[in-house]
Amino acid sequence: MTRAARPLEAAAACVALLLVVVIATGGLTVAGRALTRADEFVILLAVLVAVRALAAPLPLPTVAPARLAILGAAGYALVMGFIVVTRHLALRTHALDLGYYVQVVWSMAAGRGPYVTFPPMNAWGDHLSPVLYLLVPLGWAAPGAIGLLVVQTLVLAAGGLAVFGYAARRLGATPAAAGLALLFLVNPSLHGINIRDIHPQAFAITLLVAAALAFDAGRYAWCAVALALTLACREDAAIAVFGFGIWLAVARGRWRLGAAVAGASVLLLAVDIRYVMPLFRGEPYPHLHRHAYLGSSLGEILLNIVLRPWRWVGVAFAGGKIVYLLVMLLPLGFLPLLAPRVLAAAVPALALNLLSIDPVLANFRSQYQAFVLPFLMLAAVDGYARIREWRRAPAALGLAFFASVLLTARTTNDLMVTRWRLDAGQRAAHALMGRIPRDAAVSANERLAPHLATRRQIFIYPTGTGISEYVLDVEPVLRAKPAAGYRELARADGWILLRRDGP
Fold first, then answer.
1. HEC string for 321-379
2. Measured between alpha carbons, how far is residue 14 from residues 41, 44, 409 in Å?
3. pLDDT tens for residues 409-429?
4. β-sheet bridge partners, residue 120
5. Phi, psi of 59 (to 5 degrees)
6. What sign results for the dihedral spanned by CA atoms 366, 367, 371, 375?
7. Other C-beta atoms within 10 Å of 466: how many?
8. Are 123 and 142 spatial neighbours (Cβ–Cβ below 8 Å)?
């Protein structure tokens, strides 16, 4: 151990202690400066650990790789489960999309089909997600948002085990295989997807890795089941399964099978958006507007991508999109670039995001990375397999972990007591929501909608007034947009509960 190692370890221990204090108290003041963000301490701690690793090799715990992967998945489930549940209780979730999917599952469990009132429609006309039928028993046993949030977290945690299984087949049950599983679990895109309410396409992350694992293990039936469930996540999951067809063809040499999977995926997508979803919606598919400059139909968009590249080059390779690509690769230590045949499977999903004029698709923490991340992870595993004999190969994983921690540090802010301990206003909102009968129609603040969505009619105020029996929102909103025909029933800490006049 060098002379610099011990001072660095002492400094890291001090920063870790301060991190615990900030999380437990909500902040502290040092030399007149208020320190109220846990992520700043996480970043500083990561820098100190990285410098310490450069000074002298870090001693690593001697834990069996499989056990380490299991512990990592369990730790992820506990920490992220706590975060998503407390975010919800602290009124930091949203009508779209958590309230939306709470109502979908509740409505199906009640035997009314996938009906929502955000706005009123059959949900399959907006996004075709039959995988949610698997959650109907949850709607019977534990209706509401918390069950859905926990299920999504558990599914994503299981992705770490799937990554370990896939990596163990490529690398053996080695520490590197466990390291890649842990790298997946600290990925900033994964955290962003998990925290951003509920999205059925998030399930595709674990399902696609599991499908690759099953195929490599010769469990073709299980591979087919995983792909079928992926397709059931959302209509555009067909793009991800198209990518899996590329993986089969290019990375595994199964050209005919890959072409069949890719072709079937495109056909299913075309049928869904041209015939199936308009049947439920009563009008054309609504989500092609993000690529409207390429055409008004799926066929026209695909044709212009191939025949008129000058239309999309400037969009796809704008400065922000280049940064997006770098930020997606950096947390994986750029290892996917060492496995271009596997990386090719990510091209369809990346194209969907890069060619869009909606910037949220190129947000590395958004749910739109659910079809990109699994293929980047598979390519990272195969990329590491190519350099595993290099003496410096572990350094690539170290770089990836360092970048991941820097980009994921903000997650720790949600562990701070000030983020999850309810204040007077939040407690008042919960108390007022408790006064609304379970079967009553409600028009409410969008942060309250996920808590009130287990009913036939729930609206985001001011929509639904006149239909709704109750209105619940903050005083400034009700002052700016008065609810005519309603009388005040109660108020507390800035929240006002109204009830419709008359019978």
1. HHHHHHHHHHHHCCHHHHCHHHHHHHHHHHHHHHCCCCHHHHCCCCHHHCCCHHHHHHH
2. 10, 11, 18
3. 999 999 999 999 999 999 999
4. 117
5. -70, 125
6. positive
7. 13
8. no
